[in-house]
Amino acid sequence: MLAIPDTSAHVTKLADWLELNALSNPEGLIGFGTLISASEMSEEEQPEDISDDDTSGETLVLSVQAEIQRRQEAIGHDYPFRIAENGQSIHVVGATSDTGTAYLFCLFLSHAGDRTIVPKKLAPRMTNKVRNLFQACATVAAGGFVQGTAVSFGWPRTNRKQFLIEVKRVYALFGDGTPVNRPRPAAPAGVKDDGIDIIAWRPAADGLAGTQYLIGQVASGRDWKDKSVVVDSAHFHEYWFKVRPACKHQDAMFMPFCLEPIPTDKSASYEEVLKDHMQDLTIRYGNLFYRYRIARYVAEGMRLHAEGQHIDGPESFGEILRWVKRYRKRLAAAA
């Protein structure tokens, strides 16, 4: 049974509640009025004036509809939900694409450690296998973003190659930068990934230096704010290369959650707050790939892979889809 978030919850949580309930409903839909009545039942005090109640309910629905519309615009036609033409309900689309699957996977992972909606007994278990599936999803999105090669570098790697051997392999493919020949004298024994999970770049037409180059970290837990690849990428380039890549890299963070800005300036619109929040996060973490962006760029990554571009991760999407289907059945059974 899903918990009912009160009206003070962030609008992204309210939109998630509707999506999760639509997914658990046999008919694949839920009315916006259900959110109003459910939130009213969770409130300890009811408004004395019925007109105030109607106004607050309408405002709630409009804010949630705006958030769902924001998701649809960011992700595109593969967003797996639609608002009915009469504006009264939200429903799940019929067939789910790779993009839709990536979105649902991120939606479910968002509530693995968040008890606002999903109780602990129903929450997804964040096993190493699930984390690896999310890294595969993030790597495909990275390839879609740079429009080129994307390597899943984080440990455990599927090829199990030692760190420096893998660095040499990847940068031979990249063609920019020369790694050290052997581990540095004080290098830690058994170094796995040195904090780097994804390496991606757009191949240059002439094979020479000077192209889009991304270094990413993947964080599937709520502690993602305690991690940043900005420091790790600087150490990686300074410590492990005798000739560092000439390309100016972009730092990036990949996480399955939504952006949840909290306005401090009450006169600012939500859009202004959201833009300012993203500027703050970008300065701290580099390019931030959250749920909407990951889903959007997965589509591009899968397309490029089908055209022959080297991108790690598509081979895991069959398992991601099976995981999503199994978890959706769990939701339905608990409804």
Description:
This protein is α+β, with helices and mostly antiparallel strands and 335 residues long. The protein folds into two domains: 123 residues, no CATH class; 189 residues, no CATH class. Helices cover 47% and strands 11% of the residues. The chain has ten helices and ten strands. The strands form three sheets. The protein has a five-stranded mixed sheet. The longest helix has 26 residues. The model has no long low-confidence stretch (mean pLDDT 91).
Q: How are the strands of the biggest sheet laid out side by side?
A: 4-6-7-9-10
- Tell me the number of strands: 10
User: Structural class given helices, strands, pairing?
Assistant: alpha+beta
The tally of domains stands at 2
Q: Mean pLDDT, nearest integer?
A: 91
Helicity range of the residues? 40-55%
End-to-end gap? 5 Å
Q: Return the string of H and E elements.
A: HEHHEEHHEHEEEHEEHEHH
Shape: elongated
Largest sheet: 5 strands, mixed
How many helices? The count is 10
Strand content: 5-15%
What is the radius of gyration computed over CA atoms, rounded to a whole number of angstroms? 22 Å
Uncertain runs are none
